[in-house]
Design brief:
heterodimer, A: 405 residues, alpha+beta, Rossmann fold, Immunoglobulin-like, 2 domains, six-stranded mixed sheet, four-stranded antiparallel sheet, 19% helix, B: globular, ABC-type transporter activity (chain A), ATP-binding (chain A), nucleotide-binding (chain A)
């Protein structure tokens, strides 16, 4: 038996009027739409058609104002299309905002029931899930405290726990994962993944391309309310950021930690011919290999190091010391630096490989001298949790590239 | 023609009456009570003096009315002592006024309206449900004051539920209509205090219906607040039966208005979130 599709959008258009009018009295007349022909309208969604099956994972990306959140709100039944037909054949959990319906005056305990009520859970259902909710939120000791005294993180955790406790066919997530600390983000993603594995479809709206890539099999790129790309994450991202995730050396300069310089006196002894991240795009916890091809022209004493930076060039992880012996023998080498479990949750990072002179006394200078330096940047938009002091536990390997004449 | 059919959580469209639709209605009723409880909770927890404001303030108000109107303006309650007379009127009026106050309820809760869908009438109705507490306390106070003034409870009080049901349906209907209109015409919110004042003075709250000049007598018949106030006094203070015919006619009109206001709200509810 063919299952009914979970979501059907049939030429959905949503228009808003631009500008504040003194009164919307016209909208009080049933039957006619609020939009008057002469007023300027803004199309938040423009003729969007899509179908989702149970268990699908869909990412929505696009610039601000592209219509991502409007689409999500139509899915949640909050916004009705101006034209077209939208249908959701199932129950959904909404993470459009964390802590929807929380009343700051009520205690955490009361808010769990109240928010559950608003989201359409039955009292019995909330009671059944109560321990689980409290468990996940980690605010067990504060349940009798009014929510207004909660920290942002506590409120977010409790809100997330309530919203995801609903047994649903569809999970709607709007940019809520940028809230909270690293641990919360990790657990939230895990929870969303669990729900997806249990059969819930997922619609994820975010600017965080990394999250989209790691969670979604299908990505829709919206621009001015229109679907530009509906395909694999790679296709959508390629269109969105104008190029595929690149591994080119970032040309932008700026004095930051570990901005190595290659002094002319030692330039040319060792050259980094290429550097790339394999794969270009990763999921948290996956392994990534930074592969550099290094040509040693003159024997020298040195060491390969790798560092990890955020897009803002903040140090993300401690410098990893790599191999050194091969630098004594001229030749071309492929250095693989494998990070077995990438610890970051979201973002855009830069791996940098440098060959540092072993005896260099200036390593703690602002611009330490290096024999060679190159970086591999993954152009993935998003925020990143900077956690200086993180160990990457890199596995290094060196392979000699035979001369091919 | 657009139509969203979101078969989920709090469901949007009304289908034929079925087990599912009844279950949905129950869930909406539960949500209404939930909102009302939240309102009461936060209202009475916010300030240590909330109980004072909730009880002492109306008492003071009633005393002021009693002194000004009976001592200075020489208004009397007909056969009834003026104090219980005015308490009866004020208790009825306060409930109706709570309905008028729902005019801004959608605007006040815009954040939750724009983030989750549920039947929109839940919001103004929850305000009316919360006001039931005050109504209940007021009625107990009425009986107590009446007794104190030498009027023991009479068996005619059994008609009180019918009287109150008229008040309830009208108040709920007005609450829904005002809340809906105010979303689109904000000026209503500014006009409300004046409208409320006019209605208060136009209704026989502080004066008996018998003092209304004969050419305005029809006001006492068409104005549901007047009908309810008079009937409440009849059953609780005079020990006589109210005008059942008039009450039943108003109950029918009020119920029709309530049902109509709910359907009206549903017909334009999708526009609320666009402007709220």
């Amino acid at each position: 038996m063919a299952q009914e599709p979970l979501v059907v959008f049939d030429h959905v258009t949503k228009e808003y009027r631009i500008g504040q009018e003194r009164s919307n009295a016209r909208a009080l007349i049933p039957g006619r739409r609020g939009e008057a022909a002469e007023s300027t309208t803004f199309r938040a969604l423009d003729d969007v058609s899509l179908t989702m099956q149970h268990g699908d994972t869909l990412g929505l990306i696009g610039h601000n104002g592209a219509g991502k959140s409007t689409l999500l709100r139509v899915l949640a039944g909050i916004v009705e299309p101006s034209r077209g037909h939208a249908e959701v054949n199932g129950r959904f959990a909404s993470l459009i905002e964390l802590g929807i319906g929380f009343d700051p005056e009520l205690t955490g305990h009361e808010n769990v029931f109240f928010a559950g009520d608003i989201m359409g859970m039955s009292k019995a259902e909330i009671r059944k899930k109560y321990d689980e909710i409290v468990d996940f939120s980690g605010v067990a000791e504060f349940l009798d405290m009014p929510v207004k005294r909660y920290s942002t993180g506590m409120r977010a955790r409790l809100g997330f726990a309530v919203a995801t406790s609903i047994e649903c066919d569809l999970l709607l997530v709007d940019e809520v994962l940028s809230v909270g600390d690293f641990e919360f983000q990790r657990r939230s993603l895990e929870r969303i993944r669990e729900m997806n594995q249990a059969g819930a479809a997922l619609v994820l709206v975010t600017h965080n391309l990394w999250a989209v890539n790691s969670m979604c099999e299908r990505v829709i790129l919206l621009d001015h309310g229109k679907i530009v790309v509906d395909g694999t994450p790679a296709e959508a991202m390629k269109k969105y950021i104008g190029e595929e995730p690149t591994t080119e050396l970032d040309p932008e300069a700026g004095a930051t930690f570990e901005d190595f310089r290659v002094p002319p006196a030692i330039a040319g002894k060792v050259e980094i011919d290429s550097i790339r991240a394999i794969p270009d795009v990763i999921r948290s916890g996956d392994s990534i290999t930074i592969q550099a091809t290094i040509t040693v022209n003159e024997p020298c004493e040195g060491v390969v190091v790798m560092s990890l930076f955020t897009a803002e060039r903040a140090v993300f992880a401690e410098r990893e010391l790599g191999p050194s012996g091969f630098l004594a023998t001229p030749g071309t080498y492929v250095i693989d630096a494998e990070v077995p479990s990438v610890p970051m949750a979201t973002g855009r990072f830069q791996f940098r490989i440098a060959v540092l002179p072993q005896d260099d006394r200036h390593l703690d200078q602002v611009f330490p001298a290096a024999l060679a330096v190159a970086s591999a940047e993954m152009k993935i938009d998003g925020e990143v949790m900077a956690r200086p002091g993180l160990k990457l536990r890199t596995n290094w390997s060196v392979a000699t590239v035979p001369h091919s004449h | 023609m657009s139509e969203a059919t979101v078969h989920s959580n709090h469901v949007r469209r009304v289908g034929p009456i079925s087990v599912a639709s009844l279950r949905r209605a129950r869930s909406e009723a539960r949500l209404t009570v939930s909102f009302a409880r939240r309102e009461l909770h936060s209202k009475y927890r916010q300030s240590a003096l909330s109980l004072f404001w909730g009880i002492v303030q109306p008492i003071l108000l009633v005393l002021v009315y009693a002194v000004v109107f009976s001592q200075i303006l020489n208004v009397n309650g007909g056969s009834i002592p003026y104090l219980p007379f005015v308490v009866a009127g004020i208790v009825v009026w306060r409930y109706f006024a709570a309905g008028l106050q729902q005019a801004t309820s959608f605007i006040d809760r815009s954040s939750v309206l724009s983030k989750v869908y549920f039947r929109r009438e839940v919001i103004p109705l929850s305000g009316c449900v919360a006001a039931l507490v005050d109504l209940g306390v007021g009625l107990v106070a009425l009986v107590a004051v009446a007794w104190w003034k030498g009027i023991p409870p009479s068996f005619t009080l059994v008609a009180l539920p019918l009287v109150l049901s008229v008040l309830l349906v009208y108040t709920a209907a007005i609450a829904i209509l005002l809340a809906t209109i105010t979303v689109f015409i904000r000026d209503v919110a500014h006009a409300m205090p004046t409208i409320s004042q006019v209605l208060f003075l136009a209704s026989p709250i502080l004066y008996p219906e018998s003092q209304i000049p004969s050419n305005l007598k029809f006001l006492g018949t068409v104005n549901p607040v007047a009908v309810v106030a008079e009937a409440t006094r009849a059953v609780s203070l005079e020990g006589i039966w109210p005008n059942f015919n008039l009450l039943l006619v108003h109950l029918c009109i009020g119920t029709a208005l309530l049902v109509g206001s709910i359907f009206y709200l549903r017909s334009i509810e999708d526009r609320i979130v666009d402007v709220v």
